[in-house]
Write a structure and sequence with these properties.
single chain, 6-stranded mixed beta barrel, two-stranded antiparallel ribbon, about 20% strand
C-alpha cells in the first residue's frame, strides 16, 4: 500500500468527512444548540452537585477535626423528671474521682479535662453579653488542639486554689471589649470577678452549629465552687495516645466506670462515650453517600441529554436520506457515512461538555456564595463528567450513524 493511499485513508478522507459533519451542524444552528443544551445542563448539574457535596463534607469534617485530636468525650447519663428526659450530662453520675481514675488507670489516656458547663451573663467594660461558661483543666487546650492568640492558660495551681481567672473566646472578647486588648481586664459573672489571662484563637462553628468562640473558660474548680455549686461533672474530655488506640481506650473506660458505679451485668450504662473517630467515620460515610446521590441524580440529566442527541441524529438521518444516497453513489464508503454522523454526535456532546463544565463551575461558585461555605470542585468530577459526555456522544450517536451507513443508495435516492 502506497504512502499516498495511507494518507488518504487515515488523514485526508477523515478530515474531509469531518468538514462535512461540521458544515451539517452549522446548517442547523438552532437545532444543534438545543440538542447540546441537554448535555450542557447534565454536565453542569454533575459538576455543581458534586462540588456542593464535597464542600459540605469538607465543612463537616473540619468541624469534627476542630474538636481536637484522638478525643473521647465521656458524658454523664440523662436524668428524667416527670417523664421528661433532660439529655446527656444532666444526671449526677460523673465525679472528679471518676476523671482522676480514668487518667490514672487507663494507660492510653494522655490528657484529661473534667468539664462543667453553664450559661451566664458576662459584664465588663460597661457592656454585658450572654455567653457559655466552661470549667476545664489546664490540659483542655492541648486536648482540643486550640491555641492562644495572647496571654497564657491557667495552671494546676489555679485549679487547686479555684482562682478567679479566665481565658476568653474571640467572639466574647469582641462583644465585651471591641478592639481593646482584654488581657488583664476583669469580667464579672454572677458577681464573681474573673481576670482575663488569655485570649483564644478563633475556631468558628462547632458540630451543633454553635459558635465555639463564644465562650469563657475558667478552672473547673472555680466553676464548681464559685459559679454553679455543682458537685458532679457534665462530662470529661480525654485525649488518647493515638487513633489506633481509641477503641481500646473506650472499652477500658467503659469497664472502669461500670465498676466504679457498681453497675451489674445487664444494666445500662449511666454514662455515654462519644468517640471522635467514630463520629468522623460516620460523617464521612454519610457525606459520601449524599455526594454520590447528588451526582447520580444529576447524571440522569446527562442520560436524558444523550437520548436527545440520539433522537435528533435519527431525525437528521431521515431528513438527509437523499444526501446520503448521493454521497454513496459518488463513491463514499459506508464507514465514511458512519464517521460523519459519529463526528456530528461527538461534536455536540464535547461542545456541550466544555460549556457544561464552565456552567457547573459558575453554579458551584454561586451556590458557595449563597450557602456561605466553599464548594470544592475536584478534578476527578470534572474529568468524569466531561468523559461521560464524550462517551454519551459516541454511544447514542452510534446507532443513527450505523443506520445511515447501512442505507441502500438506490432506495435513498428514491426517498422523497
Amino acid at each position: 500500500m502506497t504512502l499516498i493511499r495511507l494518507l488518504q485513508i487515515f488523514f485526508i478522507r477523515p478530515a474531509r468527512t469531518g468538514r462535512l459533519a461540521l458544515r451539517a451542524l452549522r446548517r442547523n444552528k438552532l437545532r444543534s444548540a438545543l440538542t447540546g443544551l441537554g448535555i450542557i445542563i447534565g454536565v453542569a448539574a454533575v459538576v455543581a452537585m458534586v462540588a456542593i457535596g464535597n464542600g459540605a463534607r469538607a465543612r463537616i469534617e473540619g468541624q469534627v477535626s476542630s474538636l481536637g485530636q484522638n478525643l473521647l468525650m465521656v458524658y454523664a447519663g440523662s436524668s428524667r423528671s416527670g417523664g421528661v428526659n433532660a439529655g446527656l450530662g444532666s444526671a449526677s453520675t460523673l465525679t472528679l474521682a471518676d476523671a482522676a481514675a480514668m487518667s490514672r488507670e487507663v494507660p492510653d489516656v494522655i490528657a484529661v479535662s473534667p468539664e462543667v458547663r453553664t450559661a451566664g451573663q458576662a459584664i465588663a467594660n460597661g457592656r454585658n453579653w450572654s455567653t457559655q461558661i466552661t470549667g476545664e483543666s489546664p490540659q483542655y487546650l492541648a486536648i482540643r488542639s486550640w491555641n492562644l492568640a495572647a496571654g497564657t492558660m491557667f495552671s494546676d495551681r489555679d485549679i487547686h486554689t479555684a482562682a478567679k481567672v479566665a481565658v476568653i473566646g474571640s467572639k466574647t472578647a469582641a462583644q465585651l471589649f471591641g478592639p481593646e486588648n482584654p488581657l488583664g481586664r476583669v469580667v464579672r459573672v454572677k458577681s464573681i470577678p474573673l481576670v482575663i489571662i488569655g485570649v483564644l484563637t478563633s475556631k468558628g462553628a462547632g458540630m451543633g452549629g454553635n459558635n465555639q468562640d463564644d465562650v469563657l473558660i475558667v478552672p473547673y474548680t472555680t466553676a464548681m465552687k464559685r459559679l454553679t455549686g455543682d458537685k458532679y461533672l457534665k462530662s470529661v474530655n480525654l485525649q488518647v495516645s493515638s487513633a489506633g488506640r481509641m477503641d481500646t481506650a473506650q472499652a477500658q473506660i467503659t469497664d472502669l466506670l461500670r465498676q466504679r458505679h457498681n453497675l451489674p451485668a445487664g444494666r445500662e450504662d449511666d454514662f455515654t462515650i462519644l468517640n471522635q473517630k467514630e463520629i468522623a467515620d460516620t460523617v464521612g460515610t454519610i457525606s459520601t453517600v449524599i455526594t454520590l446521590f447528588l451526582g447520580s441524580v444529576a447524571g440522569i440529566s446527562l442520560l436524558v441529554g444523550g437520548i436527545g442527541i440520539m433522537n435528533i441524529m435519527l431525525v437528521s438521518v431521515t431528513e438527509r436520506t437523499r444526501e446520503i444516497g448521493i454521497r454513496i453513489a459518488v463513491g463514499a464508503q459506508p464507514q465514511d457515512i458512519m464517521l460523519q454522523f459519529l463526528i456530528e454526535a461527538v461534536t455536540l456532546s464535547l461542545c456541550g461538555g466544555i460549556l457544561g463544565v464552565l456552567a457547573g463551575l459558575g453554579a458551584a461558585r454561586l451556590a458557595a456564595a449563597m450557602t456561605g461555605f466553599a464548594a470544592v470542585v475536584s478534578f476527578g468530577s470534572v474529568a468524569l463528567a466531561f468523559s461521560v459526555s464524550a462517551g454519551i456522544g459516541i454511544f447514542f450517536g452510534f446507532y443513527p450513524a450505523r443506520r445511515a451507513a447501512a442505507m441502500d443508495p438506490i432506495e435513498a435516492l428514491r426517498y422523497e
